[in-house]
Design brief:
- The protein is about 0% helix and about 55% strand.
- It has a 14-stranded mixed barrel with strand order 1-2-3-4-5-6-7-8-9-11-12-13-14-15.
- The radius of gyration is 19 Å and the shape is globular.
- The chain contains no helices and 15 strands.
């Protein structure tokens, strides 16, 4: 099939509710197909301009519930073995507004035997605002005068991704200049990600893709186990289990050579089973 000049993937994805604190990034439950959200080395090399648009709505029906919009654009230059990308995030959680824009650079090494190793760096601006007008106080505190507070600072990511014969392994870190001791409500601490997936050709135009991932968001550790199936590169379905936290059902369909739609729905698991619903 001829690869089109523009490949746009629309992602309607959900994120883990327990990661909604001011000290953690929010994770898409569809990160199996959009690792570029947190790894600048993961951009595609398919002779196309690629664009991803994602939105996430959590706890639908709750006032000031967390929501997020994400835009990614990238392209790869084969002659130079390099790619460039743009990531824009807008996140609204109650009284907190977070915005992040980064430019990324990726370089690919072609090794003997078909092995490929990608290196990625990203730099940009991280902005956070606290809107005190949305906060509710006890009666004896409601007249305390408070003004909005906002801060912006330089932000940096780096990552690696290895590909060989259906195997993909990635490692990345975000907000690398802020450790846990320096973190504040305005400065998010370093976030680390390790993930792996393997594509198995099962025959009959069916692909089976098991995956495993570890995410450390500030002081929060998460382990994910997933399995997805693709049919004729058109339909996909699968699940993700986030250890002791949530069970995610996900599905996707390629609408044309240009557009793809993916969706995920979180179900609470373990002690969170009554809190992650309706996301």
């Amino acid at each position: 099939m001829r690869i089109p000049k523009t490949h746009i993937v629309i992602l309607f994805a959900l994120l883990l509710g327990t990661a909604a604190s001011g000290q953690s990034d929010l994770l898409f439950s569809n990160y199996n197909i959009n690792a570029v959200a947190f790894n600048p080395a993961a951009i595609e090399n398919n002779s196309s301009m690629n664009a991803y648009m994602g939105m996430r709505q959590q706890w639908i029906g709750w006032e000031d519930a967390p929501n997020m919009q994400w835009l990614h654009a990238s392209t790869f230059f084969d002659k130079a073995n390099m790619g460039i990308s743009l990531n824009i995030n807008n996140q609204d959680v109650g009284a907190e507004l977070t915005q992040n824009i980064k430019l990324g650079y990726s370089y690919k090494l072609y090794l003997n035997g078909g092995h490929q190793l990608n290196f990625g760096l990203a730099a940009g601006i991280y902005f956070r605002k606290l809107d005190f007008s949305k906060l509710r106080f006890e009666e004896d505190q409601q007249n305390i005068p408070l003004s909005d507070e906002r801060q912006a600072y330089a932000d940096f990511d780096f990552g690696f991704e290895y590909n060989y014969n259906g195997l993909t392994v990635g490692i990345s870190s975000n907000h690398i200049t802020v450790n846990n001791k320096k973190a504040t409500i305005f400065k998010i601490p370093i976030q680390n990600h390790i993930y792996a997936k393997y594509t198995v050709e099962a025959g009959g135009n069916i692909k089976f893709i098991p995956g495993l991932a570890y995410h450390r968001n500030g002081t929060l550790d998460m382990i994910d186990v997933s399995a997805d199936m693709q049919f004729k590169d058109i339909f996909s379905t699968g699940f993700l289990y986030r250890l002791s936290t949530s069970f995610v059902i996900r599905a996707g369909v390629r609408l044309s050579n240009v557009f793809e739609l993916n969706y995920a729905y979180d179900l609470g698991a373990g002690k969170f089973r009554n809190y992650n619903w309706n996301s």
